Amino acid sequence: MSFLQTIKLKSKVFVGDVFGGINSAIITLPQALAFGVATGFGAGAGIWGAVILCFVAGMLGPRVPIVSGTTGPVAIVVASMMLALSNNMRSAVTILLCAALVQLFASLTNLPNLVKYIPYPVISGFMNGVGIIIIILQLNPLMGHSAMPSTVSTILNLHHSIHSLNHSALFIGIITLAIVFFTPKAVNKIIPSQIIALIFCTWLSVKTGLNVDRINEVSVAFPHFVAPYLDINHIIEFLPYVFTVAVVFSAESMLTGLVTDSLTKKRHNPKLLLAAQGLGNMMCALTGSLGGTAATMRTVAAINAGATTKMCAFINPLLLMVLLFKCSGFVAQIPLAVLAAILIKIGYDIIDVKLLKVLKYAPKDDLYVLFLVFLLTVFYNLIFAVGAGITLAALLYAKRVADKAKLVHKSVYDEEIMELERVLEEDYQHRIRVVHISGQFFFGSATQLISKFEDMLGTKHLILNYESDDLLDISAIFALEDIILRLQSQEVQIILVIKNESVLKQLQDHRIVAQIGEGHVFYRELDAIDFAKEQLKYS
To answer: Domains in the chain, start-ordered, CATH in brackets?
Structure first.
């Protein structure tokens, strides 16, 4: 590569990172303000938390573009914690600091590698629960009242809130909802609807003199040191909160890392990611700022805007600091009802619509897990919900395996077909390949199988032979869909060999067959090979 080409490539990377940082910062601003207010830390702590965590985690973390800050699950846990602590900031700082230390300790173990084994229904049930919690808890602020401490209390007092609502707050909240939900996608790509709603509705509320609760005060001064409790009695007392916060901090960061790998086609070091997040959250805690995680929505926004390196994690906090210092007067005028409406949209976005669309086709075991996690998340405890979901999923899987455990006489695999496959790939220089998916294709193997299809350079036709009679679970179906999309993006034609009618019907119900074409599914491998040879003549 010539010197000019190198300069041109580096310039393109830099520009992409700048736009990625700007785009993610625009999304971060209203969310950081809203989460700061909702948790009781304050709007300023929300902004400074996003600045500190994104910068520290970006500087010390993996090279992939990851944007960090407070997210929905973190906000829910911290808000519940603050209510239980009667908004005692020193106690909150102690818990967040200890949670960050737990993250650092976990980064030295193999725990970060276990996240990919969490079943999809558990993740979906948890995220759906968090989305519903955010929506329910923001109903009171939307109507001009103070937020209730829990979803149950909010629902029980809803009739009273409706009868005594602040019409001005509800008016400006409904306008905000209309903007964030109905802004055209073309406009939303240029400037996020949340920032449009924040600016316009704040301006409108000031110009019309609406009598609504506002943020009122935002500290632009640099955060100062907040001393935690260091005695063992306090630490032992706070341990349940510590582990709850640490799990939420870590799990969402790990999941964001997996999403980043999928989008960038790169591999990050999960241990390094967790350690960087832990150090960033330590800095947030000691400065009284709101901690958080690697944020999936902001990271995806940065990557879609062109970010390819962690430089975007430097641009994001710089822009946030400029906005904080230059626009603090405007921020103080933001109505709380506007922030509530923005949070309702965030809660709606968290809900796993993808799974809801195929819910009627999902196996009953997956539905049991999903609804258990969802109900426990909304009405009891987030971390208990995840633990219960994983336990139930493991027990149901063990039961399925045990029920099928029996002695079966099976002949040795046809050696002639094995030799045919070897000769086929050699003669056609790997333009035709045959891959066998043997054993049960389920949530434990789906993620690992995806990585085996990363690079199919030179392959024109790939024959996937699924030999098992076991039905695929939701995780495996989505994984298979991901594999097919990746291969099709590399212009690889997919051919399926399915020997079980129930598996075939399941793939038809989930439109996997329609995705590759009805004519690309065969019962016998030899027929699939002949078809691939014939297709190669015309490609």
So the answer is: 9-393 (no CATH), 415-537 (3.30.750.24)
